[in-house]
Specification:
The chain is mainly α and 137 residues long. 80% of the residues lie in helices and 0% in strands. InterPro entries: EamA_dom, EmrE-like.
Amino acid sequence: MNQVVVLALVGAIAWGFWALFADVATRTMAPEVAMIVSYSVAIVVAGVYVWHRGTSLLGNDPTALWFAGLAGVASGIGAVAYYAALQIGSAGIATTITAMYFVVAAALGFLLFGDVPELSDLAGIAAAVVAVALIAY
């Protein structure tokens, strides 16, 4: 099996467990505290992975640090919103709607990087939006 597919499946399974565990945690814990605990543990996991691979922390392009930082800001905002949504509502709705981030990423790619969407790209995005709407409501 393609390594990209294997790693993506591992990510999907891990995030499925993450959503379940986050839902359980926010039943009796403030969402911001659950998020801090979750992300603190995630930093340790990522650090062990970096150490194991022997990856250079700074990389070859210093501007990448800015983009990594901006990614952290966006991730933090998304995490706060997600954990707060878990505490006040259905995990199925919160998880399903926030999983639509890929639609935003695709739209940004089209708008900012000049990526030209194929008809199949647009059809896939539309199908995903319909699927999420059906699951969430």
